């Protein structure tokens, strides 16, 4: 399988051990598990379990920083810098719009599902931000986002191996 990506993560992390590269790539917004698992399995030839564990662990780490620091950091930056005021206003509004209807309908389960669907802008970073915006208690938010990340890791791994294509053939 050839992996084509707009950012050459293999080049950026070429001097890193595969496990550390996988862990760090999973921490990157947008890339997250959608990039780290296929690279770990395809380019680094890591086992399924190693690629899953390093990717999930790396994707969960930023969640704690976001949940515990987004409020004071965003307030400080918005107060002192107009560009950050515009950015965070846009980001918070965008996240609310993306998540609000789902949260009203499904409650906390919506956060797990939102994070578990491995599409751009629906991963751990956005899930942690949504948790903050909807004032879900930090510990519960961390658990819900982490559960979503674990499910997303399974989905991405299965997708990498073409399991979903096999299912379509059956129907």
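^ structure tokens above, recovered residues below v
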């Amino acid at each position: 399988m050839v992996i084509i990506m707009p950012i050459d993560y293999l080049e950026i992390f070429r001097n890193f051990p595969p496990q550390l590269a996988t862990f760090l790539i999973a921490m990157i917004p947008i890339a997250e598990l959608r990039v780290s698992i296929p690279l770990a399995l395809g380019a680094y030839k890591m086992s399924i379990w190693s690629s899953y564990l390093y990717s999930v662990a790396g994707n969960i780490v930023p969640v704690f920083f976001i949940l515990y620091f987004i409020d004071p950091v965003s307030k400080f930056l918005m107060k002192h810098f107009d560009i950050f005021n515009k950015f965070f206003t846009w980001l918070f509004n965008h996240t609310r719009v993306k998540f609000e209807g789902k949260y009203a309908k499904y409650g906390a389960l919506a956060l797990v599902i939102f994070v578990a669907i491995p599409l751009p802008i629906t991963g751990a970073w956005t899930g942690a931000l949504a948790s903050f915006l909807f004032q879900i208690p930090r510990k519960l938010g961390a658990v819900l986002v982490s559960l979503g990340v674990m499910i997303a890791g399974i989905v991405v791994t299965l997708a990498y191996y073409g399991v979903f294509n096999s299912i379509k053939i059956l129907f």
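The radius of gyration is 17 Å.
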